[in-house]
Design brief:
This protein has 496 residues and is mostly helical. Among the domains are: 107 residues, no CATH class; 95 residues. It has 19 helices and five strands. Strand 4 and strand 5 form a beta hairpin. Helix 2 runs antiparallel to helix 5 and helix 8 runs antiparallel to helix 15.
């Protein structure tokens, strides 16, 4: 045999290995993950629906990159990650439906990649179950197709932790795992820099204690790369990093010791933002899963310790804990989306615990336990679907109200270019095609003198909420009732 033919034979054998039984097993191992991601995408499109209008925070993010609407005020806590994420669609199209479809497909693909980064750390059945649990939460389904940052922090957290554990375990290409750490950490910091710090804190400790300098550099490099735009803006527009952090804390009510556990419980009934968080608790059936989740997490850790495979369970649980702590004990309000990174990180260890409950070490089923777990899962899915439908309907109504108010403003002579001030000025301004302004509060970006000067050149309207009084500059303006609001239009532009 010649040297050339020998080389060809070796190459052929390598090709057979690459496309042989091993490759087939790998393909079969990832196929169920792809199914979970595809079902997740389809569920978003069917249950949340692409026609759902943009919400308040979405408007702030989307308006930064669209040419169809003026940019809304961008406050200190926000980061540009979401704006860049939606730019491929929002920069040239004002179709909300197209944006929703784009985000639903993208979120499904991201879930697949995040689950795939954990292959080899847990069996495929655990990855499928954990992915399905996270994807079936009403919070995940509702925010998957929305221009909001928290889901993407959750995806970044899964990728970062999974790749770091795979790198330590020596599974997969080392360079690929390291780049996965960088990408996941950058994605988190790109979306919410402070969340990235809280999520990665246990990972930094682990890397320092174990002396894994490459993982330490990968983590630091990823967080730094994602946070660079936010830091640059801090010095360019907020007077420095410490000043921006202080302003962000003020807007969030002052970070400190605040027990928000009960607020998070109240928000589980479908409240997108619970501020102030008053009213009755949701029915115990709605909050039961939230109580059971940490108990299952503890059980997962006990099982992992007994099985001498502690790290793949302990690390995500530690990161979930540090991710959740600020939103449970450091702010005075709640939004269910804040805990999405924690839910994502808890999902896989909890799924592992459930599989150990329903099957014996020999692989046989425990019929009674299996029936109880199956009943619990069915009830959990029913609750999540019920809350999701309620949440979608309520948000659809509120966003339709904004659209109707915008149509009435057009009838009153307020058309682009124009300025809206007062109650819900940001969302109603967006739907009207106007800029929005505030002389006080978290979104303060103008003065009374500037508003009056603007009224000499373009239409200006002030919105007064139910039971409120208008500011002095708008009191003489002609008043028009619109739904439960009062609209006052600068006299020069008023119609009707």
């Amino acid at each position: 045999m010649t040297q050339g033919s020998g080389a060809l034979l070796v190459g052929a054998r390598r090709g057979e290995q690459a496309s042989g039984p091993g490759a087939s097993r790998r393909m079969r191992g990832t196929r169920p993950l792809a199914v979970v991601a595809a079902v997740f995408t389809l569920a978003q499109l069917v249950l949340v629906r692409p026609a759902l209008g943009l919400g308040w925070d979405e408007i702030v993010y989307v308006s930064q990159v669209t040419s169809h609407h003026p940019a809304a005020f961008f406050s200190a806590p926000r980061s540009r990650g979401v704006s860049l994420l939606v730019a491929p669609v929002a920069s040239w199209s004002d179709s909300t439906a197209l944006l929703r479809i784009y985000l639903a497909v993208l979120s499904g693909l991201a879930l697949y990649l995040a689950l795939r980064s954990w292959r080899g750390l847990f069996p495929t059945r655990v990855l499928v179950t954990g992915g399905a649990f996270f994807a079936s939460l009403w919070i995940t389904l509702f925010y998957g197709p929305q221009a909001m940052p928290n889901y993407w922090v959750a995806i970044g957290a899964l990728i970062t932790v999974g790749c770091l554990l795979r790198y330590r375990a020596g599974r997969g290409a080392h360079a690929g795992a390291l780049w996965g750490i960088v990408a996941g950490a950058a994605l988190m910091a790109w979306m919410r820099p402070t969340d990235a710090v809280y999520v990665t804190l246990p990972l930094f400790v682990l890397a320092l204690v174990s002396g894994h300098w490459r993982t330490l550099l990968a983590l630091a490099g990823g967080v730094a790369a994602g946070a660079v735009p936010w830091v640059i803006e801090a010095y360019a527009w907020h007077g420095g990093l410490s000043e921006r952090l202080a302003e962000a804390s003020r807007i969030q009510g002052g970070l400190g010791w605040h027990i928000a556990v009960d607020d998070q419980l109240r928000s589980l009934g479908g409240r997108a933002l619970c501020r102030p968080c008053t009213g009755e608790m949701p029915h115990p059936v709605i909050t039961l899963w939230w109580i059971v989740l940490p108990l299952l997490a503890v059980l997962a850790l006990i099982i992992a310790v007994r099985g001498r495979r502690t790290l793949p369970t302990l690390v995500p649980l530690a990161c979930a804990t540090t991710a959740a702590l600020p939103y449970l004990f450091m702010i005075e309000y709640a939004a269910p989306r804040f805990l999405q990174p924690a839910y994502a990180l808890l999902a896989l260890p909890v799924a592992d615990a459930l599989w150990h409950l329903v099957r014996t070490p020999r692989g046989t089923w425990r019929p009674v336990v299996t029936a109880v777990v199956a009943l619990g899962i069915a009830g959990h899915l029913a609750v999540q679907l019920t809350v999701l439908v309620f949440t979608v309907d309520r948000n659809t109504d509120s966003r339709d109200d904004w659209a109707r108010t915008a149509s009435r403003l057009h009838d009153l002579g307020v058309r682009p270019p124009c300025l809206i001030t007062g109650y819900e000025a940001i969302p109603i301004g967006y739907y009207t095609g106007c800029s929005s302004g505030a002389t006080a509060g978290h979104n303060e970006n103008t003065t009374v003198a500037e508003i009056l000067r603007t009224a000499d050149h373009i239409p200006v309207a002030h919105l007064t909420g139910p039971g409120a009084a208008p500011p002095g500059y708008a009191r003489p303006w002609p008043a028009h009732p619109v739904s439960d609001l009062t609209v006052r239009v600068a006299p020069r532009w008023s119609r009707g």
